[in-house]
Amino acid sequence: MIKPGDTRVYVKQVTAADFARFDDGLVHAVCSTFALAQAAEWAGRLFVLDIKGADEEGIGTFLTINHKAPAFEGEEVEFIATLQKHEGHEVICSYRARVGERLVADGETGQKILKKEKLAKILAPKQV
C-alpha cells in the first residue's frame, strides 16, 4: 500500500537527443527543459504503474517544472518523485532532479487513473 511520503527513483543519462533544439537549430548542448519534464512525468508515473489495474491507464493532468541548473551530456540525472496525494483516481507527486548535489529541477506532476475504455472514448478523434 502506498502512502504520502513514499518515493520512487528514476535515473536518466543525458544524451545529445535531450539537447534543446527548435526548428531554427540547436539552442544549447545541455539537457532541455522539455527532456527534464518528460523524465519527471515518468518518475511520477512509477506510482501509477504500482496502483493501476490491468483494465486501467494513467493520463497526465499537469506538470510544473522549475529548471534550476544545467545537466550536461553523459551526466546522470536522478529524479526522486515523492507521493503527495493519492485520492480516488488522482496521483500527485513532487519531484527533485539532481546531478550529485546539484539541483537541476524540481516541481510537481499530476496524473489520473482511468478505465482504459473510458480513456479511449475521451481520446477518440471527434467526428466533424
From TrEMBL:
Q: Which domain of life is it from?
A: Bacteria
Please report the stretch or stretches of sequence annotated as the Fluoroacetyl-CoA-specific thioesterase-like domain.
Answer: 14-117
Please state what the protein is called: Fluoroacetyl-CoA-specific thioesterase-like domain-containing protein
Taxonomy of origin reads: Bacteria, Pseudomonadati, Bacteroidota, Cytophagia, Cytophagales
